[in-house]
Write a structure and sequence with these properties.
alpha+beta, DNA Primase, Chain A, DNA primase DNAg catalytic core, N-terminal domain, four-stranded antiparallel β-sheet, 15 helices, 17% strand, elongated, binds zinc ion
Length: 329
């Protein structure tokens, strides 16, 4: 992968990229060009491009680097997103997905070896071993993924681009329960839930994909939509099979279109929290779905509850079902 980045930079030199984006520079020496800096406001040129080294440096704002760095700064993208922007073909999506797949397998292997992970699952009401396996549930202890994956031949660059390692090269997920997110068969992202308090929810960079396990429910005439994977897991465990999850209250375009694929009733079961944010999001979503001819109903759980806490605190399937039946359009 390191080689691919170098190939990309040779194939699309910085100067050429800048010119494609209407930057004008004037020769300033053997292999240098100078012009106005695209990264900060200025009237006198202080942005230098060295065509031999294929890098830039601005004496005004102090920024410098290669074409990827330039895209990161000018478009506020991550390293990986910048590569994709420069050349979607160059990003080995297959490699990145393979790395996520290998990481997911590694995390699954860890789960049983960490009592703190199992007790966290238990605390969140998830205990059915079959379901835990079915969801490919894993645990990221932190600190051991890099060695494992580099030993499997994954390059540091690829692991960094995929987000599995952070910029300083350490594991991005640390003490997190991990659920792989798939689009069809392919893993497109990983969700990591901290078993501690800090930064509860984390994803890898890039899209989350569509609704969780949508292919299982796409033909259902009634679908229960929940915010979080722990809501999803307890409902599945309680015997509800027409459940899907949006991983947050704000649906992306793909997720919204999925719900609108055919005529159906969608039961929006978002958190009933004190600040009303879950219910507000549900209300807005219900309006948008109604406008598309989808029968959207809001399930109102008791104050302060989400489906997960409802079951964890002793709620059962018939009680939940009665809330679903009482859902308001
Ligand atoms: Zn500048």
């Amino acid at each position: 992968m390191g080689e691919d980045v170098e190939t990309l930079k040779r194939r699309l030199p910085l100067l050429e990229y800048l010119r494609q984006h209407h930057w004008t520079g004037h020769p300033a020496g053997r292999s240098e060009f100078v012009g106005l800096c695209p990264l900060h406001e200025e009237t006198r040129p202080s942005f230098y491009v060295n065509t031999r080294k294929n890098v830039f440096y601005c004496h005004g704002c102090g920024q410098g680097g290669d074409v990827i760095r330039f895209v990161q700064l000018s478009r506020r993208l991550s390293f990986r997103q910048s590569l994709a922007h420069l050349d979607p073909q160059t990003i080995p999506a297959v490699d990145a997905s393979a790395a996520l797949e290998s990481a997911a397998v590694f995390y699954q292997q860890q789960l049983d070896h960490y009592p703190e992970a199992l007790s966290y699952l238990n605390r969140r009401g998830v205990h059915d071993p079959t379901l835990i396996r079915e969801l490919d549930t894993g645990y990221a202890p932190g600190g051991s993924l890099r060695r494992h994956l580099t030993a499997q031949g994954y390059s540091f660059d690829l692991l960094r681009q995929s987000g599995l390692l952070n910029v300083n090269g350490s594991d991005a997920f640390y003490q997190r329960i991990v659920f792989p997110l798939r689009q069809g068969e392919q893993i497109v992202n990983l969700y990591g839930r901290s078993i501690g308090a800090a930064f509860a929810h984390r994803f890898m960079p890039g899209a989350k994909g569509g609704l969780y396990a949508w292919e299982k429910v796409r033909h259902c005439s009634e679908v229960i939509l929940v915010e979080g994977l722990f809501d999803y897991a307890v409902l599945r465990q309680a015997g509800f099979h027409n459940v899907t999850c949006s991983l947050g209250t704000h649906l992306n375009t793909d997720q919204f279109h999925q719900l609108c694929e055919g005529p159906r009733t969608v039961y929006l079961t978002f958190d009933v929290d004190a600040n009303q944010s879950g219910q507000l999001a549900a209300e807005q979503l219900a309006h948008r779905l109604d406008a598309k001819g989808i029968d959207a109903r809001r399930v109102l759980l008791p104050e302060g509850h989400d489906p997960n806490s409802f079951f964890v605190q002793g709620g059962d399937a018939p009680q939940f079902q009665s809330f679903v039946e009482a859902a308001q359009p």
